[in-house]
Write a structure and sequence with these properties.
six-stranded antiparallel β-sheet, alpha+beta, binds glycine, binds adenosine monophosphate, globular, five-stranded parallel β-sheet
Length: 424
Amino acid sequence: MKVLIVGSGGREHAIAMAVAKSPKVEKIYCAPGNAGIAAQAECVPITAMEFERLADFAQENQVDLTIIGMDDPLVGGIVDVFEERGLRVFGPRKNAAILEGSKAFSKELMKKYKIPTAGYETFDDADAALAYLETAKLPIVLKADGLALGKGVLICNTLEEAKYGVKEIMQDKKFGTAGNRMVVEEFMTGREVSVLSFVDGKTIKIMSSAQDHKRAQDGDQGLNTGGMGTFSPSPFYTKEVDEFCKKYIYQSTVDAMAAEGREFKGIIFFGLMLTEEGPKVLEYNARFGDPEAQVVLPRMKNDIVEVMEACIDGKLDTIDLQFEDNAAVCVVLASDGYPVSYKKGYPITGFEKFEGRDDRFCYHAGTAFNDRGEIVTNGGRVLGITATGADLKEARANAYAATEWISFENKYMRHDIGKAIDEA
Ligand code: AMP
Ligand code: GLY
């Protein structure tokens, strides 16, 4: 089989490595890819939003399966473009990717189908939102409706902050058209867990749980980032939590989408908060998490291509999804200054130590080749260093030891990824 992966981050590198293990696959392409993905795949210089060019490429090169890694093309309807041309593609259609693409949609769905989530109101104009805030309980959460690179959520502790937030989202359009509508949501407290799942329209199979660290600095301080590290499984995702979510959240979401005429095929990522009243949905995503994929996929025993094909064909019920009884930790190596401003183009050394290993992985997120053919830093998040271990403690020690194998100027990382597991 020939497989095309669309995207260029650490998540797509983890997908590429999983696909490369499939005995069915003889050739992998990645558009646009990066310097690390180039070891598994032939990188193709087409960006993720060029749907027609990507479909042309898939047709001309007889690609058997295209996997969409990123949210923007899914929400923009890339799957519909591929399907119209009779091309096999893994991911939700536009009318289902709205589960991630519109927070107002997903909140309304949860309300209608009684899926546990925070209470909320939706606003199309700033004046109504401002009037509502006058009597709302603090802290309060403001969310731009559309995609905003994971940055469209503001947690406001005072009325002044909340008013300023409405101005930023709805009037100044800080997140562009994503802020034409806004969800104002009740503030919840508890531990967060990420649960990824495969879905074929009717059946849902849950992957092993994970937890992300979104803030830039140790102790969950500093600005929100795309994610500074992850661990899997989450010790807080207990059997009771799993049973609750299976009963009230997972299948209910898949059935609700089907009932709305928006059959969902692909990955549903449940962002959960474990509140005192039980697990509640913080958000849905329509794709693998980044860097959740970097700790979940190396632990998956199944052939990922077989599972994805079963999703496309509506036969996921025939798959026995299995994970290793171990743990994994991913520490992101970033450019100092991320997520605000940072320099690029520094040569990176130390990759050779990871070669041929199946317990240490160096996933590339923001890397490129310079004109001398060296691999250099090319983004805020540069690499994701993942290690497995018998348990989380061992995996964490292994991952931090492996971060020392890599050197580049301005290398920055958090030192407390997975530390919360000590409290479990
Ligand atoms: P989201 O993009 O919706 O996952 O929001 C980003 C982050 O904001 C989440 O991971 C939470 O840490 C936080 N957050 C979102 N919604 C709420 C809420 N209702 N209460 C408390 N924190 C929230
Ligand atoms: N790590 C969070 C996300 O991928 O949205």
